[in-house]
């Protein structure tokens, strides 16, 4: 296990170096001149040149890169020009906001999609199988921002059940003590039920929006994996041996089908972080995706680099976790390792 | 900031049972503002402070002087361009070569220190020295060197004029020459940052009516009333400004009554909200602002005035007004053949006239038409995109085939600076509402970034110069003549085709009153009142 862990970690190092170089170069070839952007609406050539010098953009590319790597080694991701804050701080406060949203969306999706997938596989061609197909197709084919706006329109604007889509908390609540950055957990740690309810109420619609989008891959993968497992010889043997349906399906069938499902979950989590950008925009969610997009639009290099780096680290650790999970789920993996 | 959050969070945790009662009470004293985006810097002297940042500066800092308010015939409160009144100065006198300001005795900064003449000098020195936009704006009023600002005694400051310029005094009332707590900020300054810009980026250090108590960039900014402000106590104790990127949600928040006030709703939403009639609306033309179609006159085919006039006769003016702006703009077309009054903006004589346009194209030897690109700023795609599509269609009627070139907001300024775009739509508006100010920026041969057409005309420069000199000398007849002359020339040569004057659109709840229109078009919290 430890060997797997260190071996996987070692492969991550070159990818990280690659990510650093590529993001640096990519942000430099982006169209747009940050100096002109930040010099403001009545800039002259001279004031733009002044801003360019202040930002260090008049240095040769290699010198800018050396500067960037030096800062990186000191844990300094630079300053965002659009928000005026250190990038590291912002990423640390915004990543939990996105993670909370994506995790809640994922939990919702798993709660619906896995039972749906299992049932669809068990009752192939039945009503539930068709329902599964319709729900997942609809979920994945409607763009997330549209689902989001639709939910806001129905549950906030028309029915008034949901609180105003104003971000993570209503204006008249203060954020809970910052421990994990997850408002739900922090509010519980504070023992503050009111803030917990308020944060949860804000979270429901955006998490639903993301969850609906994630239903399809999970349900389809569960169904396919279950179908292939259920047609395997050992299931027939188990059935023939007179084991109860529940034991056959859950203990022998589902556990064996779990491997591809977990892989899919990892992938879904990653792309949900990407899809969250639009949801964050719709719900004014102070997450990391909208931060990166705003920075990109303003040609603000530091946050974009910081974002890509943070995402790369997140993906690498996520893959590591999934690899480790395999060995827990499937004992054969342990032997192979 | 982080520590305060922690403390606040802890306080709420303890006081949880009391939250509901306190909530109802605080809602009445809190103004909830929603808009698309927020500030990137709390100090207008900072590097690249964006437009929302201007609003922070306006409300948290005082200036020596400001404008009086007047009420327009339609009941709108509108700043009085011609009437400057004391703000931090309790009194001021303007001489031929200088102006002298006597400071109020009762003004203190938010940390309790008295506002002194040396604070004022340091702040004005800072504005002309930091470079970039602030220095540039100061220069527009001939305020260029620290030597111009003289401390006479502890309560008296003198501003020496470099040259007679009627924009010097108004330029002291714009947002930039704000008075900063010099002792506090100097104590935070470093060798690399002598003006303490890093500190004021995050913290307000002024004597103004409000101070920023919490700022989460990209999410919200919270202002608290400065209880020791010298002026009349503003009604709102707290202002929470949340950034809601989705226009649909901003509208929903207003219509559901959750948000108190919002600006920058897209014209379509605003028109629909207006039709629904539930909210209180203000719709006021941008002072000295025009949306226009510009042509690069330095290169063919737009170097030929006949081609430009032909284009001016096919621009779909009325359709743009109806289908893009939903009537929420002031038409700048189909006016009299020559300007009648020395005012700006005013409608130009062109209107859609296909036959005349075709004749002009033939005369210019371009009856076959030509191909070109039409560029716009994606930062304002709500308006620019549909308008460019309409223009593209219209130009096709006289054989001009255009390809639309969408330019990201970050890149727009760079592209304007290059002055290579042949055809583009853009908007310009000046803080200082004087015709010669607009023309100096947009038509003068010194070719500023806003002379986006690269227009060069010695005659035009002569008229603008005459107007500026006449204004400084107070020679009204010469001034009026010169203004009429340069407007008329702008119409004959038509290097840019004004389409309309945009409106500032503000939507608010019925119980909100006291909105004031300012030249900078941002919200002044001091006058806003909530409740009957």
Explain how this protein is built.
- The complex is a heterodimer of chains A (337) and B (532).
- Chain A is an all-alpha fold and 337 residues long.
- Chain A has a domain at 96-295: MetI-like (MetI-like fold).
- Chain A is 77% helix and 0% strand.
- In chain A, helix 5 runs antiparallel to helix 11 (245-282) and helix 12 packs antiparallel against helix 13.
- The longest helix of chain A has 38 residues, at 193-230.
- Chain A starts with a helix and ends with a helix.
- Chain B has 532 residues and is an alpha+beta fold.
- In chain B, the strands form four sheets. In chain B, strands 1, 8, 9, 10, 11, 12, 13, 14, 15, 16, 17 and 18 form a twelve-stranded mixed sheet that branches.
- In chain B, helix 17 packs antiparallel against helix 18 (476-493).
- Chain B is globular.
- In chain B, 50% of the residues are buried.
- The model of chain B is unreliable at 1-21 (pLDDT under 50).
- Classes of the chains: A mainly alpha (337), B alpha+beta (532).
- At the A-B interface, helix 2, helix 3, helix 7, helix 9 and helix 12 of A face helix 1, helix 2, strand 1, helix 5 and strand 10 of B.
Order of helices and strands of chain A: HHHHHHHHHHHHHH
Share of helical residues of chain A = over 70%
Q: How many strands of chain B?
A: 21
Number of separate strands of chain A: 0
In CATH, the topology of the domain at 96-295 in chain A is named: MetI-like fold
Write the layout of secondary structure elements.
The complex is a heterodimer of chains A (337) and B (532).
Chain A: H1 2-29, H2 34-38, H3 45-54, H4 61-73, H5 87-122, H6 127-141, H7 144-158, H8 183-190, H9 193-230, H10 233-240, H11 245-282, H12 288-297, H13 301-329, H14 331-336
Helix pairs in contact in A: 1-13, 5-6, 5-9, 5-11, 6-9, 7-9, 7-11, 8-9, 9-11, 10-11, 11-12, 11-13, 12-13
Chain B: H1 2-14, H2 19-29, E1 30-35, H3 51-60, E2 65-71, E3 77-86, E4 89-94, E5 98-103, H4 117-129, H5 132-139, E6 149-153, E7 156-160, H6 168-171, H7 182-188, H8 197-202, E8 210-216, E9 220-225, E10 238-243, H9 247-255, E11 261-263, H10 267-276, E12 280-285, E13 289-295, H11 305-312, H12 317-324, E14 329-331, H13 354-363, E15 370-377, H14 381-396, E16 400-407, H15 409-418, E17 423-429, H16 435-442, H17 458-473, H18 476-493, E18 496-508, E19 512-513, E20 516-517, E21 529-530
Helix pairs in contact in B: 11-13, 12-14, 16-17, 17-18
